[in-house]
Batch of 4 targets.
Target 1
Amino acid sequence: MAACLQVEDIGISFGGLKAVQDVSFSLGPGEIMGLIGPNGAGKTTTLNLISGLYTCDTGKVILDGVDVTDKKSYERARMGLGRTFQTPRFLSRSTVAENMKLGTDLADQIGFMKSFLGVKKNDFLDEVDQYLEIADLTVDWKADISSLSYGQLKRLEIVRALLSHPKVLLVDEPAAGLNAKELEKSVALMRYAAKNGVGIVLIEHKMDMIMNVCDHIVVLNFGKMIAHGTCEEVQSDDAVIEAYLGR
Amino acid sequence: MKNDTKRAQILRMLIISAVVLAAILLLDGLFIQNLKNSSVNLINVAMIYYFSVAGMYLMLGLGGSMSMCSIAVMGLSAFVCGYTNTKLGWPILPAMLAGVVSAMLLCLLVGSLLLKLDGRAFMFGTMALVYIGTSVFQNFSEFTGGPNGTSGISKLTLFGKTFSSFKSWFVLLAILCYLLILLLHRIKNTAFGRSLMAARDDETAAYSLGVNVYRTKLIAFVISGALSGVGGALYAVHNGAISASLFAFSTQQNFVIMLMLGGVMSPVGALFGSILVNYLPEIARSAGSYLNMIYGILIILLMIFMPMGLAGLIKDGFARLKAMNKKKMTPAAKEGS
Ligand SMILES: Nc1ncnc2c1ncn2[C@@H]1O[C@H](COP(=O)(O)OP(=O)(O)OP(=O)(O)O)[C@@H](O)[C@H]1O
Ligand SMILES: [Mg+2]
């Protein structure tokens, strides 16, 4: 099975701080990979390197067989790299509909002139309804985005990313601020995406969730990869136990 | 089902358009034709200015970048139109088109230089263009007529009708403004409009959603250039004569007030802002040289009490009415009171 995302020895330093060093892994279509580690371990930074928000000092990022290390983040997004943020990012002065349509816009990739003439490829409403049902969300399309709760935004951000038809989805702490029921819906969304062939990198502190949904897990500590394997392998790994308990 | 909603939308559009057209014709017949020529001139020019203000709305209201060079772009278009018409003998429509194209090219050039910089640098950079513009318009006599300006620009003839007096222009300009509002509304609801808003609100989110922020803003800036260009060409033809002093920074300042007064987020508001600001000197004639002070105080008060302008005020009013209605209707609220 060809990997949809390959990361080879990526690294970045901020001043003297080596935030991420020599991180490598490979993700197949439909797989869910956990990316875990203590606070400040470099998880979000790794995500930023993959999505192109930061430029790698070292290493390569290969998306669906194409080396994207030198590509800008918006180019990577157009090539099928979707992501969410630790703190959800929405257009603060726009409506829910406008915000969510940006996902479909990315899937459509229609030029300026054609979009002006009303050309569309994907049916926003059809698709979004299906995701909202899985996520157990009901929204008022005309409402300001600021009227939604944090838990709603967290799930809507995943829905928005899925609307863009990504090949790889990077999810940063989807469970933060969600109650048990909301969390379940969020997991259902990711499972549904994976079933449809999306490769997912999942950052999360809630261990039961990680162990529940992940096919394999990468563990970071102080920017370095200290373990990579199945849930059982990682759980019984001495270095991992040390990193989590030794703090 | 979906076709139905589309048909309903088109029907609604047609009805609104018919009502607006009727209103324009009524306004023209009952009000405009009885005004003094100088007053009609002020209203017409306000609607011409609105093309530039609409461009600023596109850049600021949707894109989050303050463009301060509309008046210079307008000036370039007006002088190119005047030059090709009076010196090269082009018919008026091609001359106007030449003006619009030159305005777009200028914005393409300036935009590709300045839009990579941050918002403040863009604002100051575009501001500088106005000073360059005024000086060029004054000194390149060959092209602009220098201190005397350009005069004798042909009248516009459309569909066999010649627009000779200010009063004959009103209906045409009002219809153009309406079409412009429709255009802005359309832009806001396209993928392009959304990418512009994404660039305004959160560049990081925009990038992650595949938006090329720089290119999006550049396209918006060229569109705003086209709008200012249309304004400039209309101005040249409407006035028949133009000179450098008409395109000075003070007019750009007025554009800012027009936009702020109307509401940065509202195209319709900006139209009323434009007319109000351009007409104010006529109403407050006795204020004379104190006018600038009044403007200044107006801006400060605006920023404090209604940062979203007239449109925001009206929107808030509606929201409050709605909330009041809701309270009246819910039984729980009744019991509570
Ligand atoms: N832009 C930046 N400039 C400087 N330092 C940074 C930057 N981004 C991240 N860092 C540093 O890199 C380290 C790793 O941060 P990162 O956000 O990747 O951690 P994390 O694993 O996501 O932690 P958390 O679980 O708290 O979200 C931290 O020490 C952080 O301060
Ligand atoms: Mg993090």
Target 2
Amino acid sequence: MAKAEYSVLGTSIPRMGGVERVAGAGIYGIDLVLPDAVRGGVLRSQYAHATIKSIDTSEAESLPGVYAVVTAEDAPDVKYGRTSNDRYMLARGKVRYMGDPVAAVAADSEATLKKALKKIKVEYEPLPVVLDAEAAMKADAPALHEEIPLPANLPKDTRVKNVCGYSTLHVGDPDRAMAEADLVVEETYETKMVHPQYLEPRIAATRHEADGRLTVWVNAQAPFGVRSEVSKLLKIPISGIRVLVTEIGGGFGGKATGTHSSAGLEPICALLAIKAKKPVMMVLDKAEETVSTTVRAPVKVWIQTGVNKDGTIVARKAKLIFDAGAYSGFGALAGSRCTQMLAGWYRTPNAHVDGYIVYTNKQVCGPVRGPGGPQAAFPVESHMDSIAAKLGMDPVEFRLKNIPKPGERIAGVPKLRDVSLGETIRVAAEKIGWGKVKLEKNQGVGIATGSWIEGSGPGGGAVVKINEDGTAAVLIGKVDYGTAPRFGIPMIVAEELGIPTDDVTVLNVDTDASPWDAGTVGSRSTLVAGNAARLAAIDARNQLLRMAAKQLEASSDDLEIKDRQIRVKGTPVKALALAAVATAAHNEIGEVIGRGYFDSKAVEAEEKEKGSSPPFTSHAAIVEVDPDTGNVKILKYVAVHDVGFVIHPQAVEGQIEGATAMSIGQALCEQVLFDDKGKTLNPTFVDYLMPTWNMIPKIETVLIKGYPGAGPYGTKGAGEIGCVPPPAAIANAICNAVGVRLTSLPLSPENVLRAIREQKGVEP
Amino acid sequence: MSLNIRLVVNGRRHTAKINPATSLLDFLRDTLGYKGVKICCNTGECGACTILFNGKPVNSCVVLAADAAGAEIVTVEGLAEGDRLHPVQQAFIDTGAVQCGYCTPGFIISVKALLDRTKNPTAEEIEEAVSGNICRCTGYTKIVDAIQIAAERLQARS
Ligand code: FES
Ligand code: FES
């Protein structure tokens, strides 16, 4: 379909920037070499909760080779935060988790730096630590942020503590519907903290330029967020800060929320550079990263569903306790998404969900790939199988029975336009051999579905400049870390301009030159930058055609750009070289510069009227459980997705496969562990287990021809939704294999074995 | 204390004075400037820093530079012939196996070492060759394709 309508869209061209990457020539943040730069490092709290009595930096300062030592005293008294300003870039008076930055040093070498950090004397007065979110809500829990009021929207007479966000959902009359249901099923579920563990360590580098401005290099997903936060925290005007993005070795939302996700690394680096009067480069090592940067938050969920005998869902009630960590971070936003999703994406006429987002003395919640999604889908989709079992119904049939119809609402989507959920279920069932595949002993098959609300968010712009040789340079505010900016975006610009993709360059973000953007988050690269780049390319094309029309004495409507020429359609002899027209622009309009803007408000308004078609997915797995060790091996895995129109199939599949594998990691092995004092027990890759080659089967991705989304040409976001179904799909397959329902992640050998033994009544 | 070593990297001779505690990874990256060798875990767990050490893939973060005295090292920068990429490099691009690309140099070296040994690797041999390389972006699926295509192309060549 794509081939006929379009010249490049729908094909899988080689990724832009691929050659540099395979040749080892891409310059990532960690590869930066700044002349004359010194090394910066952070002293982090040794307590998960304590007041700071005093900090003595004198010994560190007097060490030879030390250029600067900074504490909160050196910075303006300004807090930052997303939903609540509850955090300082360097701890002031109190620390709330073991990764909290307390002081920082700039020194001539790594060795001096380490020595100096050790010489900083901090006197702490330890406070009681609370690591469990449910416990933190109780009256006797220590208060983490005495000064922060409870959320204004909490229902009256809710007696809770340490709650930094509350989200709720109410439809119909769930109390009554639950009371009248034929069957009520109630369960509790739990997920654990995981770290995104992108491979390239987080860096920051800053140079205080001769003209007084600051240049900040980051490998962050939200350069404009970094700029505004550095400006706010150091009280430097926006105009005084330039943020440059390097190549980025993975992010997954872990490098996303401005300075939040880095625990203030960039402003600390800037503060050091100003005080040291030297460029400063900071690199987090992996262990430091695990303890200090943002994570996928752990949750506890109580879920209850009322169904009729025929399998119709009539009511859902749920309660979520979402562990935000030491600061609000992205917690309230991810927690609210999770709250909404607990109502499920099936037809549920009556529902009530309460979501409490709670402070604890641990790492802070960030917008990690599909924030809130897997934490909601693990309970929801495991629960669907539990209900089906109680009803004596087939899990696929039960799900198909409850597919919402166009015009209806599901949580987070007030009005559905088209619903591809059922189609994804049918295709996944067929591909996995549902009901047909012959399973050996201890093998099982499972299915789970998902949806992802393409959260509304700010718009974003694009600029397409036509060089005098007829090539195009594209400026957008999104960054490339294996996502749309260097896969789909150059294709969109090439398509609209009628030029080869090789003639398109997409530049790295430079906040002095690139259009503002909220950050490469929320599966929104193609939606925002793709729509904007398309309009910018069309604008540039129109300018070129108007200029050519005069010379060719033709109407610009009759012209096309092809083979690096502008020519009269059907009369290819009447043509001008594209380069000649672009060059002539110098004396007519200066340069052909196309502008485009993604108008998120207009999309929202349209969706309000006509409804929206969110992406849906179904994953199905066959697993084998070793009953003696509890080890789970995935034998086959199918991921079926409706992501609307597909610009670059290979890239979209790659996003889905990557998200799926990451979520399989959360399902089977990943977990940040703590001792009772709040110390992370497994900060390095030696102990933090992640999926390696042998754990991930070859994922069979099927992109069904879905319904158009709000992206250019009808695309939908594809970067996160793959994370949603895997934990439940695997848990359901395990249950099918050995008959035990695991309600807590990870589904590790230890936990699976314990569940099997408990079920058999054997002492674990 | 310092130590003089000689070694060959990507066919070029180097002589350098090193601190005996320096890892081969830091030496290659910071002293000689081979930034294509990536640093991640620094504990031998992720394979981002994989290089060929006398023809064998090793994690350079857990080897001392001193132990590379007299050795022949190949990094990802040494695979292409002029503008012509090595078939393994090309296969990674063609199959979409390069997302962020941070694991890519290490992966490519591990796969090259494998295909130097055998042009027709079994699934087990592949698993063994790359089990020390972590990719966080691709879910490995496109890398499976890359290895297969690279093997086919190398077979066709010989
Ligand atoms: S950096 Fe050497 S194995 Fe990870
Ligand atoms: S491509 Fe990013 S880690 Fe492999």
Target 3
Amino acid sequence: MLELLINGRVARVDVEPEMPLLWVLRDHLGLPGTKYGCGISACGACTVHLDGQAVRSCTLPVSAAQGKKITTIEGLSKNGLHPVQKAWIEHEVPQCGYCQTGMIMTTVALLEAHPHPTDAQIDEAVTNLCRCGTYARVRKAIHALAKS
Amino acid sequence: MTSVVSRRDFLKASAVLGGGFALEFSFPVLSRAVSGGPSTEVNAWIVIHPDDRVVIRIARSEMGQGTFTALAQLVAEELDCDWARVSAEYASPNENFRRNHVWGAMSTGGSRGVRTSQDYVRKAGASAREMLVTAAAEQWRVPAATCTVERGVITHHPSGRKLRYGQVAAAAAKLTPPKDVTLRDPKDWKIAGKPLHRLDIPDKVRGKPVFGVDVSLPGMLHASIAQCPVFGGKLASVDSRAAEQMRGVKKIVREESFVAVVADSWWRANEALKALVVQWDAGAYAHADNASVTAMLREGLDAKNLPQARKIGDTAAALQGAVKVVEVEYHSPYINHATLEPQTCTAWLKPEGFLDVWTSTQDGEASMIAASAASGLPLEKVEVHKMMLGGGFGRRGGPQDFVTQAVLIARAMPGVPVKLMWSRTEDMQHGFYRPASIVRMKAGLDEQGRPVALHSTVACPSILKVLRPQALPKDGVDPTAVRSLYDMPYTIPHQQVDYAMRNGHVPVGFWRAPGQQNAFYRECFIDELAAMAGQDPVAYRLAMLKAGDKNRLVLEAVTRAAGWGTPLPSGRYRGVAVADGFDSFTATVAEVSVDEKGEPRVHRVVIAIDSGYVVNPDTCRAQAESNVIFGLGSILYQENNLKNGSIVESNFNDFRLPQMAEMPVVETLLVPTGGFWGGHGEPAILALAPAVCNAIFQATGTRIRSLPLKHHDLQRHARLGDLAGVA
Ligand code: FES
Ligand code: FES
């Protein structure tokens, strides 16, 4: 049994220590907001927070997440609407939406580190892939959040 | 938490969760199941709750393009309800079969969502409105003409009495629908035409389980699949001894062209899949590669007596008599859709002989047919639950391969729901690719350098032949293969387009704006001719467009907005192109620079679109942005190469998608001129590649006759006619 601290709760799961955190979340803990896009840390759809840092959970063995605070999109805020999520609605960021939970988790971590990020900092931090092309709106929403 | 009930429950008008099973889905829900009190279906499209909530049923699939919202806006506009109380849900494919296609076509592609259903969805709204007003008037015993509606409240003016839609919906539903309704003039629109917030976004930012991959059912198992790497090949043998011993593994499913592992989590299934020792019978195409595809297409180019897609005047004679003849070849590689959500389908063969399927599909009815065929069950025993799509772009419409596979796997696990999800590598290597093509264009010019004749020969696989053979015209000319050439708006007096259908073994499919490669070829070639004639590329094009041609209007609009002819920051160059498709007209100006290392960068893209009408300007703009980034990936990097009969690329490391840093500024001018309905999902991609490549010519003097750009050495100039990029 592994013990994990997810979204402020303790969860116990009986899985292989090498199973990537992504699959523990999706298939064993019923938290499907974190997505699979590539499985090789290339797309960012699986981004979660580990002690507040954005990490790609598809290549992170669950054992490496033990003892750390794991936050997923489902636990980002109590009422389900973090300021970043609100900005995403306001600026109509998502299209298909598949990449967006990862995009939001990345942005939350970026704004924690840099409340007023420059375009270069955004480019460097937000390397998530979006096949639908929502990048312009992601940037706009981040700048709007930095202002508020 | 909301619930889903099956169609069979849905049929019981009074059913409230009757016999259904509770699931944690946000979409799709059938409204009756979740209503607090009895809701009323006023007509097939509109369900009204006693508390005035309005649920609008959407037949088309939502894959990011915004159709869920735009179609709801059109219905709500005519219905005159309170938009704040509107939600949308998918109409059930099974119900559509059963109710004589009351929701029309469900297939979602070709940018058709709004343009081909606007008429009947608006009529549904108007008809329901009339029935609701009539019901109120009957209750008051007054003429309906003395009543007005605002935001779902009916007022009888002489008396000031009011009734809400929720109060009269049940009575309205019993009335006979009016035979004829008058639709509102778009200039009077209050809900349609406005940049309203999309209905699907709040759930998507919360990470609610709305996608096909999110399906979760009691006792559900997971499957990962390996298909024969060579298209058309077969499974020869599988040694599954090691895999069977692995944790969580329940079953190895062997089918003709694939093997799948079923386990209690997807990761375990996929790990066990990797542990299989599989032998494939690759079949006839084991040695196909880029060179064999090129040879196949090239043979087509030179073939005699090809079917003609267009013939105006006498091209051969005009070429003979021309002052100068210019001949070029352009080509494009295969490209995968690479939807971010991989192909997925959940199937559950129930003990009572029913089959339930959940999937991300662009065509729920095609999914039903595929599921029925794979299971051997009649259609009425098959229930398809449409989910939100994590991207579609044409991949999830025709093929339905993922549905067939999921059902075959479920057959091996009767009574147990199994969710199949493809790995990214499977998705990359088993697509229905944008066809590779080569086009030869020959132009005859007069003394002023104007084309008097244009002869194009297209060598390209046929998408219709693969996906919809019954729709292929008798002459064998697939319109998607000759788009932008056979319907070219330029007034060149002699035109001929020949089509050589050369199919090969790589499956091809509808990739966003099918046939768009031709817009790249045509608009770059026209640019070459303008440069040879020493003319401005805009003026050169305008001279060949009839007065009043909408291509002309968007070209003029875009050049004005882009500041065509005005100075640019140092190192930046402009290119222009115009193209129409999907009943819309678009023109694009791209601003590009090429740095000292030869790296191209697209800084700004200005697009003008005339779609006749605009239902939601914000989602239309979002679609233009989407087309730019989707197109940019194919311009800069993307190609699927072939080796040993298989696709070489395996993931996003070798099939690159542009990132945030590469997103240009996109300015979209919506210039609807009215009188027709054009699409928005695809048109804006048409003129992008040529506008970018024409700007690169300005920047480097290099003509780009093939994509992606990564094969061109822009630093050293000119590798004209190079074939490295052909798949
Ligand atoms: S799924 Fe983890 S980065 Fe793509
Ligand atoms: S919104 Fe579709 S992949 Fe980003």
Target 4
Amino acid sequence: MARQFSGTLYDGQSAAGIDVMVEIVSVGLMLTKPDGSTDIWPYDSFTVMSAKRDGNRIAVSRVGASDERLTIAGSGVRDALDIYAPQHRRKSGRDTKQAILVSLAIIATLAGLYFAYPVLKNAVVAVIPESWAVAWGEAVVDSVPGTGDTCDDPAGMAVLQRLTEALTVNADLPYDARVRVDKSRTVNAFAAPGGQVVLLSGLITDAETMDEVAGVLAHELGHVRHKHALKRLIDIFGIQIVFSGIGGDLGTAGGLIMVLSYGRDDEREADETGIEILKKAGMPADGLVRFFDRLATKRAEMPNFSDFLSTHPSLNERSMATRAMVGDYVGKMPFSEEDWQALRWICGDPDADNEEAEEAEGTE
Amino acid sequence: MDKMEPYFGQPREPVPAPEASGPEKLDCDADGGELFGIHVISLFLTIITLGIYRFWWKTRVRRYMWSHFRYKDDAFEYTGTGLELFVGFVIVLFLVVLPITGLNIAAFWLMENGNEVLGGLILGLFYIIVAVLFGAAIYRALMYRLSRTLWRGIRGGLTGSSFGYSFRYFGYTLLQIVTLWLATPYVTIKLFEYQLNNVWLGSGRLQFHADWRPLFKIYLLPGIIFGIGFAVLIFGYVDMLMTQMELTEALEADNQERADELLQEMASPGGLIALGLLVLFVGWIALFWYNAALYRTILAGSSFEGVAFSGKLTGGRFLKFHLFNWFILAVTGGIAYPWVQVRWLNLIVEVVEIHGEPDFTKIAQSTEDMPKFGEGLAEAFL
Ligand SMILES: [Zn+2]
């Protein structure tokens, strides 16, 4: 292997170089200039800045403040440096190896996060004070279209209050439930962070019996029991942190309303807990099942932001699952027909709404 | 001494007859796969350092690209460091970003607390400061990069003042608005004139002069198409707004019939908006021919110590280049980005033609002061 090569020395003062002979010796590069004078560049005084892919030309930079540069050319010069100057050995495929290691590390980290995340999330949810959850919940509720026109008919409010108390007294909720009815034609209900439950009046008008309203409310209280909304809020927050960390803007996509789009598992859990809450209150538990059945037939009209009407798992699936949970349990509704009518009138005349709706649809 | 004979006494670089083998080219042997390795490692380090590593990330990528880019077989060298970029960022954060953010907050606080006039004035001041800093950010980033770019050990540099540039940038932006962007060729050439005439390699200075008028002729086609597109778009948008207002009224008056009618009518402004967007898309395709001509003009108008340049980029070539970039980025979900970066370097190699050669003995080391830290403003604004 040749140890002698021709080179060009750039002194850092001018872009015109001088020809030198470069010899790879034990202590470094020995430069011999045209006038015969020699100079040694110790191995730790320079870095290999660039090498051509054929390995026949390298550029060497002095370390530190010096602008001296040296180009060494000749067949096999890069290989020669590998052999005689271990400090400057090519780290062949170093970046590729590192990339593989790093990829494995990323996968391991993600897997670790995937398993640790629910535990971390529950820990965080447990320490968030109720007052924060309530404040966030208000922001979430405000972001839902169709809310804000809260109904306050005294007789209806009294029934709603009694229904809420009957359901929550044994429900083991982390917060006081704050249930309200907002005037809207949409058939929907949702549970926001901090125990806030909003029933849209369309749901009450649409229900055929009070059992159904109680069933929906119990389902929403199931979300409250498990703090689902708060957990979703943390999911969204986490996604935003990850994406803003990488430098993307994806985190800002989607708004607070995403908090209300629960996943499959949350819905099942809320259904299960809802049935349990109804049973503990001694109320009939098949109202929820009937509500699912009825909705399944007209699901196509439903808006897609909803919690209660979320399409996954399918309404048929949920109907079957809840039916199984109810079993042969029979409860009794502690409310009279007058109570039911009072609740139906909480936002004023419910049939006025219906007529309008029918007119709009032009059918039924 | 005998064995050294072959190394001396022969011409250092055989001087070719001028243009004997056509114009000279740059050379690049960067590899997308190698660059990909750098990106993956840096991405990981950036995530685990909560973003801090990105300054080192940029540095590693530049160092790689520069060192694989050659003129006369000698590679360019990038000597910037991640630390310089990081410190530059921190300085700008505390000296610029936080104070002007405070200004912004103060303006809104004043306006909400009844002092609309003072609040409005401060808000106006805020926007002017941001607009002026924007041009300065572009210029200072270039200053930093050129001062960290070496060739044969000779430092590059950018003189002139970043605020000189930013006031021009600000003024020209106003001109753009007043002329509905028809001044684009003029503005672009003028800004390049300021910038490029301040580019140095050591004691050698780049010179750039070009006429914007031929470019303006090429710009007219995309310019007119854009004009039509925006007009259609605005017309459709206004139509849409008015129909919507009527619809709201109809709904409030419970006039279902009228509302249904209006909903049907919504299709026509919707179609106009779609048409406007389509026209803008066509204009944007036509813009590739303008941009190719712009780059050719910039190269042809530049000279460096007796060296002339030319470029042979065509609009079709430029469009194909971009289409392929987007295609591979879309297909790979962005993973092909390093290969796109290498494609850009190769496009420069393909396009840039160099005529003649400077007297290298006359290019001495730069005596300019170098900026100590890097690109903080650009980090903040770009
Ligand atoms: Zn639910």
